[in-house]
Design goal:
- The longest helix has 24 residues, at about 20-45.
- The protein has a two-stranded parallel ribbon with strand order 1-2.
- It starts with about 20 loop residues before the first helix and ends in a 5-residue tail after the last strand.
- The chain contains two helices and two strands, in the order αβαβ.
- It is α+β, with helices and mostly antiparallel strands.
Amino acid sequence: MRAGRAAKEAGFNVLLADDDDRETALTDAAATLAILMPHIQALVRAGVSMAVDLGVYVCSGAPAFLEVPQPLLALIVESGVQLEFSAYPSSVDD
């Protein structure tokens, strides 16, 4: 058995949704978050820091604002996790 220093930080990612259609992706994310809610809340209560990271592709025609639907935002607040946004440059303009 090996013993060593405990890691101060460790983590993992859970994909809540993956769809090219924004509305579908956000609806799927809310549904998945609702299913995982008891587990997420238990981890938060235990002191685990967590975040929901909404990834956004940025191109020249991208809107200058982000909108998070109220049902998803309410679930994020209820879960006790942070809300983050990641911007990914895209060379493909749609």
